[in-house]
Amino acid sequence: MKLGKRFDTPEKRKHLLYRIALVIGGNFLFAVGVNRIISPMNLYSSGFTGISMLLRLFVLKFLHFPQIPGVDYLGIIYFIINIPLFILAYKVLGREFCITSMISIGIAALAMALVPVAKEPLFDDYLTACLVGGIVSGTGAGIVLKGGTSGGGQDIIGVALSKTHPNFSVGKISIAINAVIYGICFLLFDIQTVIYSMIYAVVNALALDYQHTQNINVQVMIFTKKEGITDKVIHELRRGLTYWRGNGGYTDEDTYVLTTMVTKYELPRLIEIVRSVDPNAFVMSNEGTKIYGNFQKRFTE
């Protein structure tokens, strides 16, 4: 796939490499949290990872599949059950999101397959394992989202439904999936396993949300005397703007006043664009703004 005009400058290529590093590092960090901390304690993750862990148990314990030396079935299963979602991503979220998600999920599956499950638990205490494992894996998942792509599973379903149904709560799909996972765990295991698995899931979600700056909306107002910012924002950031002409209260000079909405993740890039056109531009931002209307939710910038 050609890089095209979106990556035709050193700054854009550097940003692309930065995103790739986030996706790779985040996925391997997530795999460390699951395979090195949670799995040895016989605890189960939430979401599609949790489904994969239950299917791995079924494959090894009930179907008696031979263990492949140096490879964990978790990554293989995770990739397989995500395949139908690639079709959903392509139809609803577009070709670019589908390709980047496929690459990210492939990296995630590879990480979970290659990071070995620890033979002995790293912690003797369940609560400590839940807290540390949740922070490690949740941070890793959040870093993947910072890289501008999806970790797969309920991420794709949630974003797709958010786009087709703007008032849809992404959390609902996670609640439904997790209710099924921990319901099965309740039937198969003791109550301690279920409770501690749920504690891990909560810590994981909190750590992920802390990293997931795409969830935070930011209202931005830009005051500039130069033209060109609007076109650059539309073409490079793919966000719309509204602008009007005003006058400076002190100098009475003509001034352009621009306003737009971005995510907190997109804000640094927006400021870079503004500064490239007008280093003296005055920018104000208001974080956590509520939006009613057509505002595109997306992972890529």
Textual characterization of the structure:
The mean pLDDT is 81. The protein is elongated, with a radius of gyration of 22 Å. With 301 residues, the protein is an alpha+beta fold. The two termini are 18 Å apart. The chain has ten helices and four strands; from the N terminus they run ααααααααβαββαβ. Helix 3 (73-93) packs parallel to helix 6. 59% of the residues lie in helices and 10% in strands. Strands 2-3-1-4 form a four-stranded antiparallel β-sheet, covered by helices on one side. The longest helix is centred in the N-terminal third of the chain and has 29 residues, at 10-38.
Classify the beta-strand content into a percent band.
5-15%
- The Cα radius of gyration reads 22 Å
In N-to-C order, the SSE pattern is: HHHHHHHHEHEEHE
> How far from one another are the termini?
18 Å
Which regions have little confidence, pLDDT < 50, spanning 5+ residues? Answer: none
Overall pLDDT: 81
Largest sheet: 4 strands, antiparallel
Give the strand order of the largest sheet, numbering strands 1, 2, ... along the chain: 2-3-1-4
Secondary-structure content class: alpha+beta
**Shape call:** elongated
Q: Which percent bin holds the helix content?
A: 55-70%
Query: Number of DSSP helices?
Result: 10
Query: Could you tell me the number of beta strands?
Result: 4
Helix and strand layout, with pairings?
Layout: H1 10-38, H2 47-62, H3 73-93, H4 95-114, H5 126-146, H6 154-164, H7 170-188, H8 191-211, E1 217-224, H9 229-237, E2 242-247, E3 254-263, H10 267-277, E4 282-287
Antiparallel strand pairs: 1-3, 1-4, 2-3
Helix pairs in contact: 1-4, 1-5, 2-3, 2-7, 3-4, 3-6, 5-8, 6-7, 9-10
